[in-house]
Write a structure and sequence with these properties.
Elements lengths: L14 H9 L6 E4 L3 H14 L7 E5 H16 L10 H4 L4 E5 L6 H14 L10 E6 L3 H6 L5 H7 L2 E4 L7
Parallel strand pairs: 1-4, 1-5, 2-3, 3-4
Helix pairs in contact: 1-2, 3-5, 5-7
């Protein structure tokens, strides 16, 4: 497998490319595990650029660092009266992809909000959100589910298209 290209980070060869070709018209959730953060982001970006919402924005959120902003954004979208006036990460990704890296760093309350957002995105008709939510982590979130740190329902909702990276860590 080749590493991401220099320009925008697209994958050219290997398993991610074949998954990309077979799922390019899908809005199914994407889960990228393993590897380094920049490689997970490159895979998520490639899916975004090949998908039906490619004309929309790609918003990358580091869940370990930006959980409070993400939680406020989700609360603002799910219950508009709860907004605190800060820039809304979810609305910034509207019509495109919201990519959540280090997703297992999210606390239980934010995990529930992400699950609600995923459910809302799958709704039919006027209630559907024009948004793809992709997620990544440096290890398989299934381990976090087994240890009770990650909601099984959220894991199941995210794990629709999976890309497992096996890139060595850089010292």
């Amino acid at each position: 497998m080749r590493h991401p290209g220099e320009e925008r980070g697209g994958w050219q060869l290997g398993p991610p490319a074949s998954l990309l070709r077979s799922n390019r018209h899908s809005l199914a959730n994407l889960l990228v595990t393993g590897g380094q953060a920049e490689h997970r982001r490159a895979v998520a970006l490639s899916f975004h650029e090949s998908g039906p919402l490619r004309q929309g924005p790609f918003v990358h959120v580091d869940c370990g660092r930006d959980e409070p902003r993400l939680r406020a954004a989700l609360e603002g979208c799910l219950a508009p009266a709860a907004t605190d006036g800060s820039p809304n990460l979810v609305l910034a990704a509207w019509g495109g992809t919201l990519y959540l890296d280090r997703v297992t760093a999210l606390g239980p309350a934010t995990q529930k909000l992400v699950r609600c957002a995923l459910h809302r995105g799958l709704a039919d008709g006027a209630d559907a959100w024009p948004l793809r939510i992709s997620a990544g982590d440096d290890f398989d979130p299934e381990n976090a589910v087994r240890s009770g740190r990650f909601l099984p329902e959220l894991y199941d909702a995210l794990d629709k298209i999976r890309v497992e990276l096996d890139c060595p860590a850089v010292a």
